[in-house]
Write a structure and sequence with these properties.
By secondary structure, this protein is mainly beta. The chain has 3 helices and 10 strands.
């Protein structure tokens, strides 16, 4: 089960380069239900995500690089690439996604929680802006299908 809240960002943290990050590339084989492939650094996954906004089922299965590359050719829509910074926010971790073109300058902060109650009680840091958890337009699967100029 994935329980997460998503936020737009007013300003990037000044010390962003102090944090570790991952390079992520992902594509969608299907958006209803969500079936995604992802390369995170040199790890590869196939992910199924159920319906929901704040809380939904999520299953990750490992892939190897040849399988990922094969499936990437079959993906629909836009390939999404981003840099994901991991920022401690005790007891949680903020996953700050800075999207590459054609989605730049989009920046989204996500925080995952062990319970819905903790998610609802979370007070975001000052540099967060709007809570877009309930807005499906900010789901990567929806972004992948967006028509780009």
């Amino acid at each position: 089960m994935e329980i997460e809240r998503k936020f737009t960002v007013k300003t990037l943290p000044k010390n962003l380069t102090d944090y570790s990050y991952h390079r992520i590339e992902q594509a969608y084989l299907n958006t209803d239900p969500v079936i995604r492939i992802r390369r995170q650094d040199e790890e590869y996954y196939l992910t199924y995500k159920g319906k929901g906004l704040l809380s939904r089922e999520e299953y990750n299965l490992p892939l190897n690089r040849p399988s990922y590359e094969h499936l990437k050719e079959k993906a629909d829509g836009n390939l999404i690439a981003k840099k994901r910074y991991l920022i401690p926010c005790a007891p949680y971790t903020i996953e700050l996604d800075i999207f590459d073109p054609p989605f730049a300058p989009l920046v989204i902060a996500e925080v995952e929680f062990p319970t819905i109650e903790e998610a609802q009680a979370f007070t975001p840091p000052e540099w967060f802006d709007q809570d877009v958890t309930a807005d499906p337009a900010y789901h990567n699967s929806v972004l992948s299908m967006k028509r780009m100029p």
